[in-house]
Specification:
By secondary structure, the protein is of the alpha+beta class. The chain has helices at residues 9-42, 81-84, 174-179, 265-272, 305-310, and strands at 46-58, 63-65, 72-80, 95-98, 105-106, 121-126, 131-132, 134-149, 156-164, 167-173, 183-189, 197-202, 210-212, 221-230, 232-243, 256-264, 279-285, 292-299, 312-314, 317-321.
Length: 339
């Protein structure tokens, strides 16, 4: 068997020294790495980063913007890495486009309107290319048209609908204002109405971009009046003529006359529920002419006063020419048979 010779004292000492150096250099290497990282972080060069910032439009009271502008813009900032890394989009606030100062043409964002966080600088602004177009703001009066639905009760009709005020002034962009012919109200149901209706109705919301100058906010209301009246009817009636005793044997007097009844439909419905003829015709001699008679047309005794006032009879009198009376010749006395 082969045996290894024992290490000499010189070799053992050098090995121990080398181990100690390795252990010491390892610690130093770790410390150096840490120091290098810290120094790298603290002394790192400036960096650039992009953020999205909301764009708020400040309107111009005298003009309306016809172009759609972007909701956000891109903001590039530059600064130390440690500072830029701590910046958030909310730190920039809101970029403002003041239309009172804007000119027609390419969109230009004023860099001064962008709030910059401390420790960084604005490196650039990027946004969609937009051509700004404007039109003037105008005012004009437009009619208010009430919205009514449904129909009145049977025998009734809607005659007219009106709003008070009849017109309202609107304000907005020229094309929008000139394109709006009228304002309308919320709907009102006239179903089964038997009389005039007066009610306050809210104004329907105008199209976007148009405001009602008269004020009142979203619930501006107008007074609406609907005139509901009974329908008008006509009815022809043939009446049997009742003769005065003096005219019993006079020729030329008609047995019937025709008259017309006029008035509101509900009155006719009530008239139809009465028993017996509602109108009668009576003939009498004309006191001014012996060969003429007058037929008087009048309401029957059972017709209520309200119906007599609501309904009209035409004609109320009929003048009739009678056949002349033939004079009677007295009979000759019989001849005397005696010589």
């Amino acid at each position: 068997m082969t045996t290894r010779a024992p290490a000499t004292p010189s070799r053992s000492r050098w090995a121990r020294v080398l181990g100690e150096l390795v252990e010491t250099d390892g610690v130093m290497m770790v410390l150096a790495l840490i120091i290098t990282v810290v120094l790298f972080v603290l002394t790192r060069d400036e960096v650039t980063r992009r953020f999205s910032v909301p764009l708020r439009v400040q309107p111009d009271p005298a003009r309306v913007l016809l172009t759609e502008v972007p909701d956000t813009i891109a903001v590039d900032v530059r600064g130390p890495w440690t500072r830029v890394n701590r910046v958030d989009s909310a730190d920039f606030g809101v970029a403002v486009l003041d239309l009172r100062k804007a000119e027609p043409g390419p969109l230009i964002i004023d860099r001064a309107s962008i709030v910059m966080p401390q420790g960084v600088v604005l490196a650039g602004v990027d946004y969609d290319e937009v051509d700004l177009r404007f039109e003037p703001v105008i005012e004009r009066d437009v009619p208010v048209i009430p919205t009514v639905i449904g129909t009145p009760a049977a025998d009734y009709q809607l005659v007219s609908v009106a709003a008070e005020p009849p017109t309202l002034r609107i304000r907005g962009g020229q094309s929008e204002v000139l394109g709006l012919a009228q304002l309308t109200t919320e709907s009102y149901d006239l179903r089964d109405a038997t009389a005039d209706v007066a009610v306050s109705l809210a104004l329907a919301r105008p199209p976007p971009g148009i405001a009602v100058v008269d004020g009142g906010g979203d619930r501006l209301s107008v007074r609406v009046t609907a005139d509901v009246e009974p329908k008008r009817e006509r009815a022809q009636r043939r009446l049997t003529v009742v003769r005065d005793a003096v005219l019993a044997d006079r020729a030329g007097l008609p047995t019937q006359v025709q008259v017309e009844l006029r008035g509101p439909a509900p009155a006719f419905r009530e008239l139809e529920r009465l028993e017996g003829p509602p109108v009668v015709a009576t003939a009498r001699p004309d006191p001014g002419a012996k060969d003429r008679a007058i037929v008087d047309v009048q309401w029957a005794a059972g017709v209520p006063a309200g119906l007599r006032e609501a309904l009209a009879i035409d004609p109320l009198q009929v003048v009739v020419e009678l056949a002349p009376l033939v004079p009677t010749v007295p009979a000759a006395p019989p001849a005397d048979p005696t010589p």
